[in-house]
Amino acid sequence: MMGAPPRSRPRTAARVAAVQALFQSEQAQTSAETVIDEFVRHRLGELPGDGGYEEGRTPDANVPLFAAIVRKATREQDRIDGLIMEALSPDWPLPRLDPVLRAVMRAGTAELLMPEGPPARVVINEYLDVAHGFFDGDEPRMANGVLDRLARQLRPGEFAPA
Predict the structure, then answer these.
(1) What average pLDDT does the structure give for the chain?
(2) Which CATH architecture has domain 10-155?
(3) Which residue of 1, 54, 59, 122 has the smallest Cβ count within 10 Å?
């Protein structure tokens, strides 16, 4: 069971919720707006009598960031998937990835594409933490490698020349 991020990390909670929403949207074939609405009404924020992370809720998520990530990831999914596929090794096509890992990579790439977003290294570290919350195996390392490659491609100015 995934532990709760500290309550002082609403942006991290937003990223966890965005990954969950992207996974749910893909599995249920629902639109971004439908899943955003469902999360905002039922899974984000404090509701009396409702549980926390252990019951699938993300009570302290930054809702504007959550919605921005989900919208960007779904609106630009073809571009994002193309970028991810280029960063993956040829023996790991996107459909072969675990659907939660796909959602982690899509959310992270969407955030890297946001010009007003945090520094690339912050995005990479945040999604590495998120991936560790869902996986015990090599998946976090794979997500880290893909996001690092994409960050260097999409935001070269943030990385010193080799």
Answers:
(1) 85
(2) Orthogonal Bundle (1.10)
(3) 1
